[in-house]
Amino acid sequence: MKSIVLNATGAVAVGALLLFASPLLAQTMTTEPVAAPVEAPVEPTAPAHEIDTVHSYVVFNIEHMGVGTNWGQFTDLSGTIHFDPANLAGSRIHVKVAMASLDTKNEARDKHAKSADYLNTASFPVAEFVSTAIAPAGENLYAVKGNMTFMGVTKPLATTFKFHGAVPNRGGGTRAGADAEFVLKRSDFGVEELGGLGDEVKVFVSIEAIAKPASEEAATPRGEGRQRGEGLRREGRTGGARRAPAQSD
Q1: Is the torsion defined by CA of 185, 191, 197, 203 positive or negative?
Q2: Residue 188's CATH number
Q3: I need a surface site. Which of 26, 91, 143, 205 has the fewest CB within 10 A?
Q4: Domain range for 205
Q5: Residue 235: which H helix or E strand, with range?
Q6: Under a CB-based contact definition with an 8 Å cutoff, are residues 15 and 7 in contact?
């Protein structure tokens, strides 16, 4: 599997991703406006990789008072990336973001943003992205379409993610990574007023995902364990710059 992230996703994701806004990305992708209706996600048959929360990010920014840019991030994301460049029809990105993990470096502002006045995280604790189609879009690039659900509203979303390659993971299995960037309009999800903040939210997603270690794969049905990770390792040899195995923080 190639790493997305969705990125992928997505984080993929997510992408899982959301309504506010944040930075942190390696490459810049272009989001295409989507007018199509919400579609059903595919049943994944590509190898599965779980999102590594410690090494994955959802960052955003949003215009403030017409003269500045406010930044923030969501620190709690999860999900599963099924991805194989040789089996895009069976690939799926599913990224979930815990809305209560909002962090704008101001505790009072974060508390207000999470309240019923704005994000209402008590009633809508999770935002998620589930892909419905993935297609090649250039060298190490993949176009992804899917459904973005935020504050109880689901809208179609299309973007492009860059796959950065795959390497053996230190704890076993395979680690892969990808980045994506897209724009959401908060008004599309029912958030009409944000006290001087703009309508467009630029979202940046950087995801690393890990396949099951070989010891866990041995417990899966015959043939399935061998399939998991093969797509990523195969693509890791030919697509994207190889990286050294990530160190745990």
Answers
A1: negative
A2: 2.40.128.110
A3: 26
A4: 48-238
A5: helix 230-238
A6: yes
In-domain check, residue 246:
no
- The radius of gyration computed from the CA coordinates of the chain, to the nearest angstrom, equals 17
3-state helix, strand, coil in the chain (%, to 5): 15, 40, 45
Measured CA to CA, the distance from residue 4 to residue 241 in angstroms comes to: 14
Q: How many domains does the chain have?
A: 1
Q: Phi and psi at residue 133, in whole multiples of 5°?
A: -160, 140
Q: Is residue 183 part of a domain?
A: yes
Compute how many other C-beta atoms are within 10 angstroms of the C-beta atom of residue 133.
Answer: 16
Q: Is residue 120 part of a domain?
A: yes
- Residue 101: other Cβ atoms inside 10 A: 17
Distance CA 130, CA 248 (A): 28
> Is 13 part of any domain?
no
